[in-house]
Amino acid sequence: MNSSDLIEIKDNRPAASISNGKSVKTVVVVGGKKYFKKQLTERCKDNLCHRMAMYKEFDVGRQISCPYIVKYIGINEDEHGMYVLQEHINGKSVAEKIETEPSYFCNHRNTTRMLKQLLEALKVLHNANIAYLDLKPENIMLQQINNNVKLTDLGGCFADSNNYTAEYTRRYAAPELIEKRLDDVDARTDIYGVGKLLEYIEKKTGKKLPKHLERIMRRCLQEDKTLRYGTVNEVIKALEMGGVILRTSIFCMAMLCALIFGWKQFEGSENHKRLMTYLRTDATVDGIHYMVTSEDSATCMVIGAQMIQDANWGYINLYIRDEIEIGGKAYRITEIEDSAFKSSKIASVSFPNSLTRIGNEAFMDCPLLGTISLPASLKSTEHACFKRTGVRNILFPEGIKTIGHASFAESRDLTSVVIPEGVETLELDAFACCDNLVKVEMPSTLKTICRGVFWECRKLKEICIPAGVTGIGEYAFFHCDSLTDVYNYSPEPQALAAIFNRRNINVHVPEASAEKYRNAHHWGDMNIIGDL
Predict the structure, then answer these.
(1) Which site among 176, 368, 415, 489 is 20 to 30 Å from 214 CA-CA?
(2) Among residues 244, 340, 324, 339, which one has the least CA distance to residue 292?
(3) Could you tell me which of 270, 177, 259, 174 has the C-alpha nearest to residue 223?
């Protein structure tokens, strides 16, 4: 392939230009099809070792045929130096995925699926007598559409024909690599990397791995490689056995319940929910179920309560302690699990001072919950955590930064909200459809009002937008039928899509900025008054 056939393009994805200091990866088009072009940087293009590593990467890559390993198309050189052409991958690395979508790996089925595909990729390499070595989250891509694995960057692998350009990243490397004992490198070196990957996922998500994955991780991470799994096939077998044991246990218990109650009546019932919670419970204190999340940091998570199942209670006042004791050891309560108290009779909650996370939909559909006082340790609210509650009063902590997606949406009894100083972002639909909301006070620290934050707040009459707000998402004030006056203190009109669905709204702006607003898209459709 001639280098003149390449057309460099710009892409709005960050991966359109990625540099590791030795090479840079850009997106190019050949014959209307996208590829990744990996090219040595200016300072490395004449370095023999780096050139040999690139030759090796292409040579190894073209021998390998696996759906979970990136395909190598060609190797060439242009005026900027040597480059390799690879298939174009739409997606994110495991490192990017866990930063932008941490909930993805909180679902351990996704972790297991990713691990199986990665092990298949390693098996293909090992069968070709190649050790990958540099197994790290940045080198494992998950494709955009199906989240399938694509293992990238074969430049540092250990191959018979070229092992002197082998590379690794120290924090993920096996002891034999760190000690430069290349004669000890084999399949078990990559198996250690699999353990480091599981350790990384557990630490970044803050979620304890299921016991079968934890056992696999511990064995992979043995310092003495003779104590690790001998082959990738052994790891795959352990992974499958763990799933079989777990599924068999759950199936047997479910079948027992099915025999007693009938499956259709049991599935989705309160007894089913109680059983599932009980299976994961490490301790029950004052009727509240807890599960340990980290032995090292001595933390645990609230996952439910016995009293939620008791139909004799008209309402429930929930008190969660700062600390509990399990097996003679003290554990701090730092989380409330997703959906832990969803659709329950809770009327009030006393949160622990150690709490850092209230999970998605944790108190959703709790119509008796009228007052919410959030602890100072909380920095954000999660998706729909208090959606459709009976909340009338919200006391936010001073340190909170973000009001999350639909956190208080459809709370019909909410009439006023004071958002404290320190909050920077109101996320998508945060207070949408609070149709009795009359008054909102926003802080000077606010920077972003996302899409639909006050959508269908039909009784909201006026709103003050602080001077520091630089972004307002579309539909932010759609169907606010009573809205007559907006006080926007920003000296520069924010770039907008449509945020109002009516034109008869008075927008009060700084006097010196009035003309700018009149000439700005969408703002100019309103009645601009320069009186601030």
Answers:
(1) 176
(2) 324
(3) 174
Confirm if 319 and 286 have CB atoms less than 8 A apart: yes
- Find the helix or strand (DSSP H, E) in which 361 lies: none
Question: To the nearest 10°, the Cα dihedral for 260, 265, 266, 268?
Answer: 180
Give the pair of three-digit tokens for residue 138. 């940045």
Q: What is the pTM of this model?
A: 0.51
Torsion 197-198-203-205 (CA) sign: positive
Res 457 pLDDT > 80: yes
d(CA 472, CA 478): 12
Cα 465–chain centre separation? 30
Q: Which amino acid is at 220?
A: C
104 and 97 Cβ atoms separated by less than 8 Å: yes
CA 145 to chain centroid? 16
Please, what is the Cα angle at 367 between 363 and 368, to 5 degrees? 95
**Helix 211-220 vs helix 187-205: crossing angle, to nearest 10:** 130
In terms of Cα–Cα distance, which of 522, 516, 502 is closest to 530? 516
Q: How many CB atoms lie within 10 A of CB 146?
A: 7
* 40 confidence band (pLDDT: 50, 70, 90): confident
Checking if the pLDDT of 268 tops 70, the result is no
